[in-house]
Amino acid sequence: MTKARRSYEEGCLAAHALDLIGDRWALLVVRELILGPRRFGALREGLPGISANVLTQRLAELEAAGLLTREMMPEPARVQLYRLTPAGEGLWPVLRALCQWGVRQPGHDPRLFISPTALMLSMRALCARAEAGAFRVAMTIGEDAFSIRTAPGRFRVERGMAEAPLTFRAANANLMAAVVYGPQPLEVAARGMIGFDGDIAQGQAFLNLFSLR
């Protein structure tokens, strides 16, 4: 049985929101589900610092709060998935604001673990949309694949592989993040740090849309 949630016991709307998502790890669990449903094991891979017991508790609390639901994949997989409800998906502006606020604060260490989903969401939050051209990009990070499309004023990312003129591949998200946000040009990074297929100039123009500075 899930323990009764602690409450600030205030009528403040911010306090009410924190009653729902203010516990440690809760908002990061939501982060890992923003781009679509995930298995329990996939959630743990994206949150390596969380224990199985705490993740189980947070999932139960978020479900009780109406922020996620459980569903079963059809036969023969029969694997349980966790999916955000519309209320859970509505937390994206909160995550975006945290990314945009956090990048301006000192002390961020980009060498620490970042999940593939977290990298995609940081790119979604920090993309210089006003400067974006029409790019179609496929990114494979370990076993995760993402499809990205940009246009002036737009950035869209979806989970799953798709054909694209620009294809990036990396063993893990930290390597990909170092290329996306780092000062090293793609022409150098593509010699061994990551894999890349497509026009180097176009690939560099896409990466120039992202900065932590």
Question: Could you explain the architecture of this structure?
Answer:
The strands form two sheets. The chain has a five-stranded mixed sheet. It has a three-stranded antiparallel sheet with strand order 1-3-2. The mean pLDDT is 94. The termini are far apart. By secondary structure, it is of the alpha+beta class. The chain contains ten helices and eight strands. The relative contact order is 0.11. The longest helix is centred in the N-terminal third of the chain and has 13 residues, at 52-64. The protein is globular and about 55 Å long. It folds into two domains: 13-90, Winged helix-like DNA-binding domain superfamily/Winged helix DNA-binding domain (Arc Repressor Mutant, subunit A); 106-207, SCP2 sterol-binding domain (Nonspecific Lipid-transfer Protein, Chain A), CATH 3.30.1050.10. It has helices at 13-21, 26-33, 40-46, 52-64, 86-89, 92-102, 116-126, 173-181, 186-189, 200-207; strands spanning 38-39, 68-72, 80-84, 135-141, 144-151, 154-159, 166-170, 195-197.
How far is the N terminus from the C terminus?
A: 46 Å
Structural class: alpha+beta
Rg over C-alpha atoms, rounded to the nearest angstrom: 18 Å
Question: What is the string of SSEs from the N terminus onward?
Answer: HHEHHEEHHHEEEEHHEH
Largest β sheet strand count, sense and barrel closure = 5 strands, mixed
Count the strands? 8
CATH topology of the largest domain: Nonspecific Lipid-transfer Protein, Chain A
Spans of at least 5 consecutive residues with low confidence? none
